[in-house]
């Protein structure tokens, strides 16, 4: 095989692998809002006034905070993490682990309190998640977390509020 053919095969193989990987993990994940959660519908102006500019950029526009910028990245107190937009509880401290990625990371979430959707803004489509109650974007779900879930709920700390147990 010449060099060009090798590169072509390698790139095609990698692309195919990535797509299949995404499809298989995506098919297994079917996370929807709990029926008991009433969705909040507020205008863009409401959110712009209610949130800080950073919180607005993340929750309403899907931005990502810089790595290691959140006070919750290396933070291990017992308690719960709530959506800064609407107070819905999303994670507990026993779901949190140190992923060494620079963002607060959780291996699970409170079922029905988050919804997973496909984010096409990333280079390759990725799984993102939002608050089931206010629809605010919180982060991305990556399947490289610890067992038994294998999930990493990679969260923006600026959109969470910690409450001690
Ligand atoms: Zn919310």
Helix and strand topology:
Elements: H1 3-28, H2 44-50, H3 53-61, E1 79-83, E2 89-92, E3 96-97, E4 105-106, E5 114-119, E6 126-131, E7 137-142, E8 152-155, E9 160-164
Antiparallel strand pairs: 1-2, 1-9, 3-4, 4-8, 5-6, 6-7, 7-8
Zinc ion (ZN) binds next to loops.
Structure overview:
The chain has helices at about 5-30, 45-50, 55-60; strands at about 80-85, 90, 95, 105, 115-120, 125-130, 135-140, 150-155, 160-165. By secondary structure, the protein is α+β, with helices and mostly antiparallel strands. It has two domains: about 1-30; about 30-165, Metal Binding Protein, Guanine Nucleotide Exchange Factor, Chain A (Beta Complex). Strand 1 (about 80-85) and strand 2 (about 90) form a beta hairpin. The mean pLDDT is about 90. The structure holds zinc ion. Zinc ion (ZN) binds near residues 88, 131, 133, 134 and 136.
Which short descriptors sum up this protein?
single chain; 165 residues; alpha+beta; Metal Binding Protein, Guanine Nucleotide Exchange Factor, Chain A; 2 domains; six-stranded antiparallel beta sheet; three-stranded antiparallel beta sheet; 9 strands; binds zinc ion
């Amino acid at each position: 095989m010449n060099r060009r053919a090798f590169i072509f095969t390698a790139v095609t193989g990698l692309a195919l692998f990535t797509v299949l990987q995404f499809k298989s993990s995506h098919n297994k994940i079917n996370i929807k809002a709990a029926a008991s959660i009433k969705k909040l519908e507020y205008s863009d102006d409401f959110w712009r006034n209610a949130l800080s500019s950073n919180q607005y950029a993340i929750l309403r526009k899907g931005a990502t905070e810089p790595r290691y910028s959140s006070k919750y990245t290396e933070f291990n107190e017992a308690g719960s993490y709530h959506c800064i937009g609407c107070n819905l509880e999303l994670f507990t401290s026993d779901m949190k682990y140190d992923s060494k990625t620079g963002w607060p990371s959780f291996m699970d979430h409170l079922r029905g309190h988050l919804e997973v959707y496909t984010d096409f803004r990333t280079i390759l489509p990725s799984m993102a998640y939002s608050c089931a109650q206010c629809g605010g974007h919180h982060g991305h779900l990556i399947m490289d977390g610890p067992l038994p879930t294998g999930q990493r709920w990679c969260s923006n700390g600026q959109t969470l509020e910690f409450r001690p147990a």
